[in-house]
């Protein structure tokens, strides 16, 4: 064969349905017609399982029923062939089955019939008979595909791999004799020139002429051996775009790994991610023959290249593998020392019982051991260990075996991953932050992989988190936003403007999955387009209520990095926060009210978030976009002692104070502030000083002061009787009565060389206990507050370290854009923490 050869292997499950059979035939019809091509096929799952069932029936002595089962498999294959031809456009009455019946295909089953008769006579497993039965499936599959291609006018040559694969060793354990096989291929290859050959893979012939098979997934080895003998790369066609960075069922944006080494591919196979059988991969590796894994329905995509060299960057993890439906069986030492180490004995006992251990981890010196195995084997494994370790169990040297199921084995894989620093830290830190319990850990000396065990319910969250932590893909964050007023609407607009930048520049994908207000609730796990949020929420019928919003926590918790974002000023939100924390949902809030509830509520919010490893960020509750709370936290955490805090906490009242000093009447200044979005929905919240008092209380509690709203001395900005009006418009109109009074007051302050400001003061070490005061103050012109303009706010921290010159935080302290930016910053803290930034 002098022309280039194309060798392909079709994954068995691609041929498991009539649609799959038609797809493979279409694929072969379109590719390189007239060139030399070899396609290796094997029994699809339905056929392999059916042959095993017929063999089991024969071993019970019922050859008649076994033959009937075999005939049933042929009938099913013929029906699939007929349906596949119709899917490809064959009119009724013209299919190959209808034209010549099943005589040709039926003759292929004759060796299997004789083998089943023999099995029913001996009633014991004979590898030679089993090889004949199993090998029949490969030939039938190749014949079905050949007939389908013929019906499409594509000529092909059926080749039994047993005609050129020479094996040695006993049936059931046969291995390829490379020298004799090479000679057979050299003899046959001229007859394959310029043709499409369909090879029934996995079959062989022993030197003495007996039929053999190459064992489980032997067709993979057939493909690998043929590629090696012809010096041609091998392509594996499957139903995924290559070896994926994670299971697409768990990670929506999992992507193909462009380049792998054979050592990485073998590690992945051993960890449960199939490509080819390990023997086939080793055969290709030893001969330095590349393998490419590609998607049958995406033939133009490059897929994954696997070769000896790999990508050449051993410090970058390749992918995350998850193997589910396992059990973790643990043995712990008791009150006495065991006579011999438990770990080796436990593993030896399981091996002797034919129970495979997927992973094992033991303490030094083998006093306890954790073994991971198939969940279906857990009960029998426990019996085996109780029997093997009975003396130690009886005298208390061992505790009874403990079984945890279901669990999942998750592994991070990369070539020579141990060459990179902090891989384990990057792996486990975000899992710990999310409260995922790691039950057992193992790493090989080669450092190609780190495997660990988590509870089955945590599988999707774990895989997504690890996948994102190693920058395989974007860190997805799922947002349920409550409120789309001044702050909420600005937040959604900023999300829209920054979504692409955050994804491309920072690897963070912020998805709006829910939006709610006091009347409507919209939820879509697939995401709400940020350009359409207003139209989408307005199209929802009214009827929202707290229970409706609370019901969304369950679907929200199942999404990647769920975050509840509260942009409302609603009462009673603390109960929703608590339920969110317990459901595994982070909370970002601009709502001050939950933080100023009685002290026990404050403590319960913080402790519940901590116990459930959820973030609770509320920076904007004090200084809008200013880093006031974080600054105070940093001072306290680093051991500084706060002597006093003073500031204009309310950008709204700071704005009003400056407007009054500039000669603007009070009523007009308040209306303008409300129009600019500087006030609460009802401005009396601001003018009462309640908003500033809440902020002062939050800062006091951050210092560790056990205070409540009743402890705050509040003097309103306007007389209290004006604050009783609930209607906003009547309230604003009523303020006109105060215009002359405030104008006169401002004139008096100017005469004294002073400036009106609304300040809060916290004295944590006052003689009679901590003091919090909030109210209008006339300050001299050299006071820091006099520099404030517009809605600026400032906070001055006097501490042991900042005694002579207080630490000042100053900037815009009110308004939708800056508050929304602060909320967004809190959201990004969560995502960046998970990505280890």
Automatic annotation (TrEMBL):
<dbReference type="GO" id="GO:0009090">
    <property type="term" value="P:homoserine biosynthetic process"/>
</dbReference>
<keyword id="KW-0791">Threonine biosynthesis</keyword>
<dbReference type="GO" id="GO:0009088">
    <property type="term" value="P:threonine biosynthetic process"/>
</dbReference>
<feature type="domain" description="Aspartokinase ACT">
    <location>
        <begin position="410"/>
        <end position="470"/>
    </location>
</feature>
<keyword id="KW-0547">Nucleotide-binding</keyword>
<dbReference type="GO" id="GO:0009089">
    <property type="term" value="P:lysine biosynthetic process via diaminopimelate"/>
</dbReference>
<dbReference type="InterPro" id="IPR036291">
    <property type="entry name" value="NAD(P)-bd_dom_sf"/>
</dbReference>
<dbReference type="GO" id="GO:0050661">
    <property type="term" value="F:NADP binding"/>
</dbReference>
<dbReference type="Pfam" id="PF00742">
    <property type="entry name" value="Homoserine_dh"/>
</dbReference>
<dbReference type="GO" id="GO:0004412">
    <property type="term" value="F:homoserine dehydrogenase activity"/>
</dbReference>
<keyword id="KW-0560">Oxidoreductase</keyword>
<dbReference type="InterPro" id="IPR001342">
    <property type="entry name" value="HDH_cat"/>
</dbReference>
<dbReference type="InterPro" id="IPR001048">
    <property type="entry name" value="Asp/Glu/Uridylate_kinase"/>
</dbReference>
<keyword id="KW-0067">ATP-binding</keyword>
<comment type="pathway">
    <text>Amino-acid biosynthesis; L-threonine biosynthesis; L-threonine from L-aspartate: step 3/5.</text>
</comment>
<comment type="pathway">
    <text>Amino-acid biosynthesis; L-methionine biosynthesis via de novo pathway; L-homoserine from L-aspartate: step 3/3.</text>
</comment>
<dbReference type="InterPro" id="IPR011147">
    <property type="entry name" value="Bifunc_Aspkin/hSer_DH"/>
</dbReference>
<keyword id="KW-0521">NADP</keyword>
<keyword id="KW-0808">Transferase</keyword>
<dbReference type="InterPro" id="IPR005106">
    <property type="entry name" value="Asp/hSer_DH_NAD-bd"/>
</dbReference>
<dbReference type="Pfam" id="PF00696">
    <property type="entry name" value="AA_kinase"/>
</dbReference>
<keyword id="KW-0418">Kinase</keyword>
<feature type="domain" description="Aspartate/glutamate/uridylate kinase">
    <location>
        <begin position="114"/>
        <end position="294"/>
    </location>
</feature>
<dbReference type="GO" id="GO:0009086">
    <property type="term" value="P:methionine biosynthetic process"/>
</dbReference>
<feature type="domain" description="Homoserine dehydrogenase catalytic">
    <location>
        <begin position="627"/>
        <end position="828"/>
    </location>
</feature>
<dbReference type="InterPro" id="IPR036393">
    <property type="entry name" value="AceGlu_kinase-like_sf"/>
</dbReference>
<keyword id="KW-0486">Methionine biosynthesis</keyword>
<dbReference type="Pfam" id="PF03447">
    <property type="entry name" value="NAD_binding_3"/>
</dbReference>
<dbReference type="GO" id="GO:0004072">
    <property type="term" value="F:aspartate kinase activity"/>
</dbReference>
<protein>
    <submittedName>
        <fullName>Aspartate kinase/homoserine dehydrogenase</fullName>
    </submittedName>
</protein>
<feature type="domain" description="Aspartate/homoserine dehydrogenase NAD-binding">
    <location>
        <begin position="483"/>
        <end position="619"/>
    </location>
</feature>
<dbReference type="GO" id="GO:0005524">
    <property type="term" value="F:ATP binding"/>
</dbReference>
<keyword id="KW-0028">Amino-acid biosynthesis</keyword>
<dbReference type="InterPro" id="IPR054352">
    <property type="entry name" value="ACT_Aspartokinase"/>
</dbReference>
<dbReference type="Pfam" id="PF22468">
    <property type="entry name" value="ACT_9"/>
</dbReference>
<dbReference type="InterPro" id="IPR045865">
    <property type="entry name" value="ACT-like_dom_sf"/>
</dbReference>
């Amino acid at each position: 064969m002098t022309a280039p050869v194309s060798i392909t292997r079709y994954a068995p499950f691609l041929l498991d349905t009539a649609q799959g059979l038609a797809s493979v035939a279409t694929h072969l019809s379109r590719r390189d017609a007239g060139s030399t091509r070899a396609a290796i096929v094997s029994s699809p799952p339905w056929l392999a399982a059916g042959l095993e069932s017929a063999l089991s029936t024969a071993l019970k002595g019922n050859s008649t029923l076994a033959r009937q089962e075999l005939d049933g498999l042929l009938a099913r294959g013929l029906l699939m062939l007929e349906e596949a031809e119709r899917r490809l456009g064959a009119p009724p009455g013209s299919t190959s089955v209808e034209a010549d019946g099943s005589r040709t295909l039926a003759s292929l089953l004759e060796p299997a019939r004789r083998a089943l008769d023999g099995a029913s006579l001996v009633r014991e497993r004979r590898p030679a008979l089993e090889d004949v039965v199993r090998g029949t499936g490969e030939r039938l599959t190749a014949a079905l595909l050949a007939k389908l291609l013929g019906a499409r006018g594509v000529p092909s040559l059926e080749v039994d791999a047993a005609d050129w694969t020479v094996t040695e060793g006993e049936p059931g354990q046969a291995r390829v004799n490379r020298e004799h096989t090479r000679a057979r291929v050299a003899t046959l290859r001229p007859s394959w020139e310029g043709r499409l050959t369909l090879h029934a893979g996995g079959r062989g012939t022993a030197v003495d002429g007996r039929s053999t098979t190459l064992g489980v997934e032997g067709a993979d080895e057939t493909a690998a051996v043929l590629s090696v003998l012809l010096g041609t790369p091998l392509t594996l066609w499957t139903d995924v775009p290559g070896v994926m960075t994670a299971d697409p069922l768990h990670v929506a944006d999992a992507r193909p790994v462009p380049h792998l080494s054979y050592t990485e591919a073998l590690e992945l196979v051993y960890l449960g991610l199939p490509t080819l059988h390990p023997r086939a991969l080793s055969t290709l590796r030893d001969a330095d023959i590349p393998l490419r894994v590609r998607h049958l329905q995406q033939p133009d995509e490059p897929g994954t290249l696997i070769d000896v060299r790999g990508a050449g960057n051993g410090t970058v993890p390749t992918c995350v593998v998850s193997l589910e439906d396992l059990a973790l069986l643990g043995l712990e030492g008791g009150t006495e020392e065991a006579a011999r180490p438990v770990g080796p004995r436990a593993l030896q006992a399981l091996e002797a019982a034919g129970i495979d251990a997927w992973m094992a981890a033991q303490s030094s010196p083998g006093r306890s051991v954790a073994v991971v195995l198939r969940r279906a084997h857990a009960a029998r494994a426990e019996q085996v260990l109780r029997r093997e370790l009975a003396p130690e169990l009886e005298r208390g040297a061992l505790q009874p075996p403990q079984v945890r199921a279901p669990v999942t084995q998750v592994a991070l894989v990369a070539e020579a991953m141990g060459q990179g620093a902090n891989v384990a830290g990057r792996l486990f830190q975000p899992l710990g932050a999310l409260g995922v319990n790691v039950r057992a850990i193992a790493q090989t000396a080669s450092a190609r992989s780190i495997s660990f065990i988590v509870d089955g319910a945590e599988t999707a969250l774990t895989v997504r988190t690890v996948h994102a932590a190693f920058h395989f893909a974007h860190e997805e964050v799922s947002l349920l936003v409550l409120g789309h007023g001044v702050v909420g609407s600005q937040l959604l607009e900023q999300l829209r403007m920054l979504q692409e930048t955050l994804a491309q520049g920072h690897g963070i994908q912020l998805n709006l999955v829910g939006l709610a207000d006091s009347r409507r609730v919209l939820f879509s796990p697939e995401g709400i387009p940020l350009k359409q949020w207003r139209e989408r929420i307005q199209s929802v019928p009214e009827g929202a209520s707290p229970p409706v919003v609370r019901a969304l926590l369950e679907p929200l918790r199942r999404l990647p990095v769920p975050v509840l974002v509260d942009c409302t000023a609603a009462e009673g939100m603390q109960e929703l926060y608590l339920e969110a924390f317990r459901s595994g949902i982070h909370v970002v809030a601009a709502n001050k009210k939950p933080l100023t509830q009685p002290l026990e509520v404050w403590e319960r919010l913080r402790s519940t978030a901590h116990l459930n490893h959820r973030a609770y960020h509320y920076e904007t509750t004090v200084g809008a976009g200013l880093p006031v709370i974080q600054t105070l936290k940093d001072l306290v955490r680093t051991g500084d002692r706060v002597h006093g805090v003073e500031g204009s906490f309310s950008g709204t009242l700071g704005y009003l104070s400056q407007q009054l000093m500039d000669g603007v009447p009070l009523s007009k200044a308040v209306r303008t502030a409300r129009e600019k979005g500087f006030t609460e929905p009802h401005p009396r919240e601001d003018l009462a000083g309640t908003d500033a008092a809440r902020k002062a209380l939050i800062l006091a509690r951050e210092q560790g002061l056990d205070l409540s709203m009743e402890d705050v001395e509040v003097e309103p900005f306007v007389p209290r009787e004006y604050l009783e009006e609930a209607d906003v418009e009547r309230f604003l109109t009523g303020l006109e009565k105060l215009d002359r009074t405030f104008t006169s007051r401002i004139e008096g302050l100017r005469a004294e060389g002073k400036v009106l400001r609304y300040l809060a003061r916290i004295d944590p070490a006052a003689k009679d206990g901590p003091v919090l005061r909030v109210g209008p103050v006339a300050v001299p012109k050299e006071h820091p507050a006099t520099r404030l303009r517009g809605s600026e706010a400032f906070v001055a921290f006097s501490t042991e370290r900042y005694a002579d010159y207080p630490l000042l935080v100053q900037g815009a302290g009110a308004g939708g854009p800056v508050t929304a930016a602060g909320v967004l910053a809190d959201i990004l803290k969560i995502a960046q923490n998970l990505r280890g930034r």
